[in-house]
Amino acid sequence: MNYQDEGVPTVAALQIEKRYGEERAKRLRDDGDSQFVDISLSDKFHSFLDDPWVDAAPVKNASSMFPNNRCQVLILGAGWGGLLYAIRMIETGVRPEDIRIVDRAGGFGGTWYWNRYPGLSCDIESYCYLPLLEETGYVPRHRYSSGEEIRQYADLVAQKWGVADSAVFQTKAETLEWDEESKEWQVELVQQRHGEQPQTLHIRAPFVATVNGVLSWPKLPGVPGLLDYQGHVFHSSRWNYALTGGSPEDPSLTKLRGKRVAIVGTGATAVQIVPHLARWAEHLYVVQRTPAAVDHRDQRETDPEWFRNEVATAAAWQRERLRNFHQHFTIEKQPSINLVDDWWTGAVGMVAIAGNAAGPKAMDELPAYMQKLHAMDLPRQQRIRKRVEEVVKDPVVAKKLQAWYPTWCKRPTFHDEYLSTFNRENVTLVDTDGKGLDHLTNDSIVAGDESYPVDVIIYATGFRSPFTGSPAQKANMTIIGRNDVSMSEEWARSGPSTQHGVLDHNFPNLFLSGPWQASNSPNYLFNVDALAKHSAYILAEAKRKAGGYPFAVTATAAAAQDWGVQVLMRSPPMAAIAGCTPSYFNVEGGIDRAPPEMQMIMARSGLWGHGIEDFMRVVEAWREEGSMQGIEVST
Which keywords does the record carry (predicted)? Predict the structure, then answer.
């Protein structure tokens, strides 16, 4: 295969690749991921984490939720992942009343609890994204569900499976410590209810699942003068409707009339917010470091009759739809039928981070593989760059809005109004050519030689990378396993030692939720549900083998070693991310700079490089075999 096979002349294609490299080089910084302020680790900026939604409902006192300071199964995280872990365990025999779901939020939903900004909706088709549609009979209202609908559906699911009363909200796990003698975890929880002093609880739980999500901790740009600015400011994940007007149900931002607003960031979040800000602000400044590649969205309401006759047509229809969706991320022949038929399924370059069994088997095959990837991807990116020219009237602005990187380097974005927003007279693109803002003053943002006085600054600057640290670090807690092994220290030194990504040899009875040593899909909820089912199966089978409580279940050292080798052997297809423009995908270019020995650990710790459906085939065959090979149960 060569570039001309895909309709892009070879010389032009090479010039585009050269441009990709030049744009990447502009954005690489010596401080890498540390250029950002991790809000959760900084006392100075901790107010950016304040919960604007918690007053909507009373939160139970945590001490009343743990009779005898115990529970049978403790799930850390009340987002969709936590709900799915609870539901899959209930399906294998765990009673809802024996489960406790802990979350620092004030309700279910995870990312959909915290993020309620105007225009928020999922970028994955709702008939694929929303779990358990077949079981609930729920019909999503739109092709792409709004954040409010997704959050409300989470509440519906919690009620249906009987775990609505199992939640311990506004509560965070600080430490987990394994007790080998009693075969259970000693857990320190801290509840911080609104307007009250923190309450510390010490409880015990034989089984714990860490399901803390992938994008949980907001970050700010490390811009000089960040605290000098005296105007109104907030992070997009804590939207301040008291300041802007409107509500999650009504994006009428009436209080922004007459206001000059700056939004910092142009990723998937800002793409949805910008059109709404532009409608209401006197003037909107969109601060861009790297342009988003914005494809069509084609939102529409769901016709219930069409849904019944064309989508939910047979048993297991949602699993088949997702299988078909995944099959479009391949370097081989596309499926003859496209059940989803959206612009995601045209983004075949995402195979570079989704993985594919037809990818390279060794690193010396990577150059040829990269040529294939670029050949597939260039026509799409050229079309998207052309779309900018067709929609944005000012050619100078259009040029600055064109994305110069392959599809797989950033999560694709989809919107039908974002680009046309830059045709409005009250919208200014502040393009920083990859540098970001220079500094802030008491009343302005400063980029290069230009100063822009603003009344409100909104940071749509994303979250801590999900691909750094252990589950303990991901949740800002301490986990101590067998033989006093610290998870954070062990994973930093050697990486995880898991079977199928769900049980680490050093941490019995602790069920993990990926992505380490597991797989990936653009639809993350499919990943977490696959691991939830796998974890629930292992727990149920371990209980059967043990004949009752207490017992410890974990991966054997040999099985964990073998699984790490299996992941490593399938890692070459994932190497394409290393040369990308900086983003959370590659930890702001940090993956490229890791020393060789660390890159080897990262490869055996990373994603299953043959793709999500191949991963499913492996774990489902393991369950079908039935002997729990590689799993140790001790009483």
Answer: FAD, Flavoprotein, NADP, Oxidoreductase
